[in-house]
């Protein structure tokens, strides 16, 4: 499932939700959940929606297509569920405020840990990544889409990335394109700038997962850690975390425990 085996997984989420009030998440840990919509039963939707707050519930009602509503509900229920799993606070108790470029950040008490979270959703899959203090971004994409990969890459990717994409056989174009795309989106989401950050100003090496910045970007590759995942046959996912000493980071990436979310909704 992890596409790079350069780090032993730390399964700190395996031992169950927070106990004795000691938060599971620290500035050295990242918790990453994904939720495959195919796993969610008809009877689950109402329960998942009950984990959302009023504002999210009313936003979810405004989607035109059921498919978009469901993935929104899955993403935001996972987000609130992961926060509860790691901290013990009630799912609906969390408030978000939008930063300058629209990145939702948790409102945390000034004397407590500054939790940082990011959500991504695509057709059939939702993901959420949580840590403390560190800039964090996650991106998921559906693999089955037919995109004009090379043309699109030429308008948004760095020259080196376009060369690599041009060199791979047609059968690998979509996967290579989306491998770059998810990493790039994870980075722009971590820094909070979204697509207002030009995507051609930085590039990735898909083997080492190192980032390279051109002269227009004031950032340090040494402070970044990236991971790639294949959460299922139809999806790619990438994670970006800013950390002054990335080797200390422990990342637990796992499917969201649906049974836990169901129980949470029943409380
Ligand atoms: C952030 C952005 C890259 C999301 O891309 P996407 O692949 O369509 O969506 P994803 O599913 O991966 O992520 C969406 C989630 O990211 C979060 N998000 C929104 N803005 C964000 C930002 N600037 N940085 C990080 N995360 C952001 C939200 O939680 C959102 O989910 P929600 O709307 O259900 O709450 C893109 O929408 C964007 O750049 N927005 C900022 C506005 C902007 O610069 N627009 C430029 C065009 S005018």
Automatic annotation (TrEMBL):
SUPFAM superfamilies: 4'-phosphopantetheinyl transferase. Residues 44-129 form the 4'-phosphopantetheinyl transferase N-terminal domain. Gene3D superfamilies: 4'-phosphopantetheinyl transferase domain (3.90.470.20). One of its GO terms (biological process) is lysine biosynthetic process via aminoadipic acid. Belongs to the P-Pant transferase superfamily. Gsp/Sfp/HetI/AcpT family. Coiled coil: none annotated. Residues 136-227 form the 4'-phosphopantetheinyl transferase domain. One of its GO terms (molecular function) is holo-[acyl-carrier-protein] synthase activity. This is 4'-phosphopantetheinyl transferase superfamily protein. Keywords: Transferase. Pfam families: AASDHPPT_N, ACPS. It comes from the Bacteria.
């Amino acid at each position: 499932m992890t596409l790079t085996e350069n780090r032993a997984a730390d399964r700190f989420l395996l031992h169950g939700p927070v106990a004795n009030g000691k938060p599971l998440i620290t500035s050295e840990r990242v918790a990453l959940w994904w939720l495959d919509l195919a796993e969610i039963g008809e009877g689950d939707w109402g329960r998942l929606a009950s984990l959302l707050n009023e504002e999210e519930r009313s936003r979810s009602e405004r989607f035109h297509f059921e498919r978009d509503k469901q993935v929104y509900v899955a993403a935001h229920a996972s987000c609130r569920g992961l926060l509860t799993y790691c901290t013990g606070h009630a799912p609906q108790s969390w408030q978000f405020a939008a930063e300058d470029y629209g990145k939702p950040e948790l409102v945390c008490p000034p004397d407590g840990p500054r939790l940082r979270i990011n959500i991504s959703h695509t057709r059939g899959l939702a993901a959420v990544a949580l840590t403390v203090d560190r800039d964090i971004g996650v991106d998921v994409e559906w693999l089955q889409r037919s995109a004009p990969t090379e043309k699109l890459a030429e308008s948004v990717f760095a020259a080196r990335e376009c060369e690599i994409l041009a060199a791979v056989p047609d059968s690998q174009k979509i996967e290579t394109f989306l491998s770059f795309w998810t990493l790039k989106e994870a980075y722009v989401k971590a820094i909070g700038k979204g697509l207002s950050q030009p995507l051609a100003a930085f590039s990735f090496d898909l083997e080492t997962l190192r980032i390279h910045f051109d002269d227009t970007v004031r950032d340090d590759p040494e402070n970044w850690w990236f991971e790639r995942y294949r959460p299922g046959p139809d999806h790619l996912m990438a994670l970006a975390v800013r950390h002054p000493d990335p080797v200390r980071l422990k990342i637990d990436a796992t499917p969201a425990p649906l049974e836990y979310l169901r129980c949470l909704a029943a409380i």
